[in-house]
Amino acid sequence: MVKTKSIEESVENYVGSISVGMLKYKKHLMRDKNFSEADAIDKTLEYGMGMLRSGLGGTITPQRAAALFREQADINTALANICEKEEHS
User: Fold this and answer.
1) How far is residue 54's CA from residue 86's CA, in Å, rounded to a whole number?
2) Alpha-carbon span 31 to 76, nearest angstrom
3) Most buried residue among 2, 43, 46, 70 by CB atoms closer than 10 A?
4) Which residues contact 52 (CB under 8 A, 6 or more apart)?
5) CB atoms < 10 A from the CB of 43, how many?
6) Which alpha helices (H) appear in the chain, and where do they start and end?
């Protein structure tokens, strides 16, 4: 049986995916468009803010989006720390 996601869950998933989309876009700009890293970051932030603005509103507040990004950052930092420990083992 397929579980139907609520609008809140769908928007939360969308907001949570923004950083991955931004990373892919930055890599595309640098690889395919020969952007410098600094210029790619600036352009990527514009891209990400457009995505974020389309997801924020009554369903997901800016505060909830910030909390999602911080949770992702904590998880990614923990994974990076594990990878670094594995490298030195």
Assistant:
1) 39
2) 24
3) 43
4) 15, 18, 65
5) 16
6) 7-32, 37-55, 62-87
Tokens found for residue 77: 């930092």
- pLDDT by 10s per residue, the chain, length 89: 888 989 889 988 999 999 999 999 999 999 999 999 999 999 999 999 999 988 888 788 899 999 999 999 999 999 999 999 998 88
35, 46, 62, 87 from 53: Cα distances, Å? 25, 11, 9, 39
pTM of the model: 0.84
Rounded Cα–Cα distance for residues 66 and 63 (Å): 5
Q: What dihedral angle (degrees, nearest 10) is formed by the CA atoms of 78, 80, 83, 88?
A: -100
